[in-house]
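User: Hey, my collaborator sent me this sequence without any context and asked if I could get a structure. I don't really work with proteins. Can you help?
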Amino acid sequence: MALMITDECINCDVCEPACPNNAISMGEEFYKIEPSKCTECVGHFDEPQCVMLCPVACIPINPAHIESRETLMQKYQRLTAAATAGTLPAAPGPA
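Assistant: No problem. I've predicted the 3D structure and written it out in structure-token form, which is a compact way to encode the shape of the chain:
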């Protein structure tokens, strides 16, 4: 499952740097999550970092992008391989 940021976002800038897949960016009015890059931190952390850090709890599961943990792990492996090959910016590792 990919996550999404709702219009309750206060643009506090906490979530974007916490995302290990660089899936979060500024949208027209508030931050947004690119579903093709969001693994809910599977492969990096036990819990989605953006959800843990968000002060207004505006990051739910995106119902349009339901994925199993297995699918999220495959996405993580694909993103990691692409970053290693130099086709994507490298994601930061766990802190």
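In plain terms: The two ends are 23 Å apart (CA to CA). You can pass these tokens on to your collaborator as they are.
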